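Key result, reporting period 2: structure in, sequence out.
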């Protein structure tokens, strides 16, 4: 029997994560049945769960990947860019869109204490990336200096959560680019 390379295993895991993203976004965690996961990936349950222990591990891997991607965007371009990316692809169909995963994470944080405990380190990573970027901008003189960086970071995180809720309710996103411009101007010097 031929051995499968690490690259092939990594590619298959990524194929699965890409496939289930839309399923979780469309049906939520509870509605993403094994049958729907199979349909969305084009793979059998055996192939899916060979790479992921169970549906919870699969969702957590997707949410962790999204959290890392968000933190990377924050580090490079700031939290407002994450919000712009959400506006650009709010349905979750685009690989850069984190809305579907973010909504499920929010729901599970509210209803599942065990998930909340496991998720705290990922939440802290996004906060850390936001604060580090704001610290760099403050040192460069680009931020307002009458508000502490932790307060500015919390302000931006609250705006993100508000945007996620707004999009989740299906409210219009027409003028939100202007709102994000205002948010960005509020933290700049």
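The corresponding designed sequence is given below.
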């Amino acid at each position: 029997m031929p051995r499968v390379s690490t690259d092939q295993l990594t590619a298959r895991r990524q194929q699965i994560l890409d496939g289930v993203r839309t399923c979780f976004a469309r049906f939520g965690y509870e509605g993403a049945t094994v049958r729907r996961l199979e349909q969305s990936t084009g793979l059998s349950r055996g192939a899916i769960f060979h790479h992921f222990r169970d549906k919870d591990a699969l969702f957590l891997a997707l949410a962790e990947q999204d959290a890392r991607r968000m933190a990377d965007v924050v580090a490079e371009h700031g939290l407002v860019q994450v919000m712009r990316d959400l506006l650009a692809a709010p349905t979750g169909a685009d690989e850069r869109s984190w809305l579907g995963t973010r909504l499920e994470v929010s729901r599970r944080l509210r209803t599942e204490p065990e998930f909340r405990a496991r998720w705290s380190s990922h939440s802290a990573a996004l906060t850390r990336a936001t604060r580090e970027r704001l610290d760099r901008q403050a040192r460069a003189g680009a931020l307002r200096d009458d508000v502490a960086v932790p307060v500015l970071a919390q302000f931006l995180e609250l705006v993100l959560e508000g945007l996620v809720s707004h999009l989740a309710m299906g409210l219009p996103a027409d003028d939100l680019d202007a709102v994000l411009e205002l948010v960005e101007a509020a933290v700049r010097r």
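The longest helix spans residues 113-139. The chain has a mean pLDDT of 89. This case is discussed further under Risks and Mitigation.
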